[in-house]
């Protein structure tokens, strides 16, 4: 008897799709400002050392220690340098590049000062990182309620008091505000009024859509979809068939719809630490010692964040010398460093390459959700 | 090696012994049963290196020639149970094959050398105890449901067996709830504690599920050996320290509520339908002679059950994983249950009103 398989009776394609109400309106009322500092880390450094003004500056790790560019100023960008580029490559493109080691504590201080200025306009601020934030100014009384004027006042205030320039986008939702802040960057602003949305969105290339990375963009291009106007011609059903859940999101975004709210106190969803090694680690006992060291750091952070009671999952990430990344995880609700040893073994078994990066983390459960109390307190 | 028997003579022994064999094996021979035939009868052995079960059968066996071999357990059992009732079966080993014949059916199974079958090297027992099957069954039934499953605190993935002067006790907990059963006047021995692994407990409960009679327990440092009529179960013990369970049993936990077990159980069963599928939370609201059970889910559907109970005390609102309460009410055989509640953040004590050999502790849920 040969190994065989039975032929399919029917070719079934799984299609999961909810009927969707096509009646979609642009929110006429909400006003969101997206503030984005221009090359933030570099701007702070240049402000503190004006001699650097006009020359290419990059903030990041040293080129012979596998550093990458965290931020660079516009002079450096002229050489084709961009963030996340390996520093040795950046130096190759621009030999007289000024490299400055990042001083995160300093940037955090400046970020807090900027935030104070935002606070005078609205309390609904959602920081995305040290240099980016969404402001919901719908109910702000300042500037007769004009979001465009609020944005220009904020930019002027920050520039005057802190010597940093900010670009701003003003729109009826987060998605459009973020695109708008990029429109007149650096040191500029752009407003999309509710009435302009449908016209603006048509010419927007698909890769500008939040959540569309290179893979999805390529897939969209292959389908002949270049911009949102093309995308709008696709019915919801087709999009969900092609892209699953992202399809439904694309259906909304290409019409300029985004109902996500500005959430002032972003809940911590995870705590993590990671290290990229100057020299790749050989898979050995030493990796376990490294994991133990990282775990100690991680548990300090967890405790510092006050979330030790809400740990719900542990994960360990390895990046091998061939840049492939693997993650192992396990559900566990108690503080137990031994879990990481198990995860390391699991992850190491997936490749015999040397290890370039080790990351450890825990997921934090929502404090508002129900919680089973433990019987044993220790 | 050759013998003839009937389907019925080996059906139950094969089922129990095959139960020990894990479906996924690292060592091929572990998916086989060791079959040993001697003049006095046959013995079947299954193992996963942690738990070993041996069945000795001497009735209804017609021995042709003695010898031993290992035969794929699950395949043999699947063949065996699909044979017709009362079928006569002949097993004969030839080279590396075992030939199973019955009526007009013939099966040829691949064997592995019996000499390679791993045994559990249990040493002689330090503590020995004789107990009736009914008592051991009760000790296991009352507690085993509360054992943890694949918890990183590996010592919770099992059942504590404690033999003290005057009583034998079992305790199991998963860190959220605990069950304890104590039978008095069973032993005079010195105090000792052992943790039986989860699998050993589950297999043992199958072995002793029906028959009565006496059981001999022998516990050494690393193993427990349990002999019951024709079965011998040997299990490794969990090497670890069981948590101090006495500390978490509330001794004078507040006011007590008494309720009819069946009413309470069906109330929980109905309310559970509309509880959050993941967290299974229900809210209990206690007021004078009344208990209200409320549940709701993310779809905002709601259930409410009101029961008449005996309760005199302050009004208390407390949340629970309804599964934990259902588990307790399933093993409590009494007509009336007593639940002692103090406040929304403290554990409750559940007992049978009357038969008090078992106590159950459940931690609340913050809702």
Structure, explained:
The complex is a heterodimer of chains A (378) and B (367). Chain A has 378 residues and is α+β, with helices and mostly antiparallel strands. Chain A is 35% helix and 20% strand. In chain A, helix 4 (104-119) crosses helix 5 and helix 10 crosses helix 11. Chain B is α+β, with helices and mostly antiparallel strands and 367 residues long. Chain B folds into three domains: 2-116, Roll (DNA Polymerase III, Chain A, domain 2); 127-247, DNA Polymerase III, Chain A, domain 2, CATH 3.10.150; 255-362, DNA Polymerase III, subunit A, domain 2 (DNA Polymerase III, Chain A, domain 2). An eight-stranded antiparallel beta sheet of chain B has the order 6-2-3-4-17-16-15-10. Chain B has an eight-stranded antiparallel beta sheet with strand order 14-11-12-13-25-24-23-18. Chain B has a five-stranded antiparallel beta sheet with strand order 5-1-7-8-9. In chain B, strand 7 and strand 8 (97-102) form a beta hairpin. Chain B is elongated. Chain A binds chain B through residues 330, 332, 334, 336, 338-339, 369-376, and chain B through 152-153, 173, 175-178, 243, 248, 276, 279, 281, 319, 321, 345, 347, 361, 363-367.
